Amino acid sequence: MILTQAIPSVRKTVARWRRERRTVAFVPTMGAIHEGHLSLVRQARRSAQRVVVSIFVNPLQFGPGEDLARYPRPAARDARLLKEAAVHLLWRPRANHLYPEGHRTRVRVSGLSEVLEGATRPGHFEGVTTVVTQLLNVVQPDVLWLGQKDAQQARILEQLVTDLDLPVEVRRGATVREADGLALSSRNAYLSGEARRQAVALVRGLETARRLLREGERSGARLRAAIRRVWRAYPAVREDYVAVVDADTLRPVRDVRGPVLVAVAARIARVRLIDNLEWSPR
Questions:
Q1: Are the C-beta atoms of 116 and 272 separated by less than 8 Å?
Q2: Domains of the chain, first to last
């Protein structure tokens, strides 16, 4: 595995692969590598001949009072796991590589970025879309792999690639879960004891929504209410949002008539978690 921080090194390596007619897949991460990331790496390896992974804790996507300073950064462990997963190139740029003095340009996807996570975390997705545009410009992959756990982010980046005619195919990997259903997340490391036991409220609420949808429930309001009823059994859960939205536009739906995203966010102790499910009528 090639390990580098420098942008010219990434470009030189990818250019060599191109001369060798190798296809390239890319998995952008913020590190604290877990099985969710590794599942994307495995899918990336099946989709292309070379795999690039980036690790960059992006300051642009953290708001005031968020956990930028304490975000986990186990660099040696991350490198070991990615090497064992047969990643070909690990790129760990520094902030001043991507945002040198005088950097002013921001990328924003209107209409999808201001709702759900965007309403709770203003400016978050502008940070995401700006950095991913830069990462794609450097790596220039054939395939970009994103996780379903961050469904809104994936949808926004799909729109970004379409709108800017970027020559990359975007694919999503399914959410990977722990044995009790909790979606894998780097922030799960903050959970312990009772907070960890309470965290399953998110997936339990979504499981209830999925069951109701399968049984024929089509009211967005009743689906939201059902999730909140489940959460009442978990007193540590503090809701940020419970939403039933169109899977493409992310607009709230009154009645489920097509593909929907059921998205939830909540705080448990000091930890903010998100989860979702996508569902389509047959």
A1: no
A2: 2-173 (3.40.50.620), 186-277 (3.30.1300.10)
Has 37 been annotated as catalytic? yes
Beta bridge partners of 51: 25
The per-residue b/e assignment along 41-77, b for 16 or more CB within 10 angstroms, e otherwise, is bbbbbebbebbbbbbbbbebbbeeeeeeeebbeeeee
pLDDT in tens, 10-45: 999 999 999 999 999 999 999 999 999 999 999 999
pLDDT value at 282 more than 90: no
- In the chain, which residue ranges form alpha helices assigned H by DSSP? 7-19, 35-47, 75-84, 95-98, 117-120, 124-139, 151-163, 193-198, 201-214, 220-231
Rg from Cα positions in the chain? 19
Q: Where are the alpha helices (DSSP H) in 104-233?
A: 117-120, 124-139, 151-163, 193-198, 201-214, 220-231
- Tell me the pTM: 0.96
Two structure tokens written together for 11: 């470009």
Q: Is the pLDDT of residue 65 over 90?
A: no
pLDDT value at residue 255: 97
- What percent of the chain lies above the pLDDT cut of 70? 100
Catalytic residue, chosen from 37, 88, 103, 124, is 37
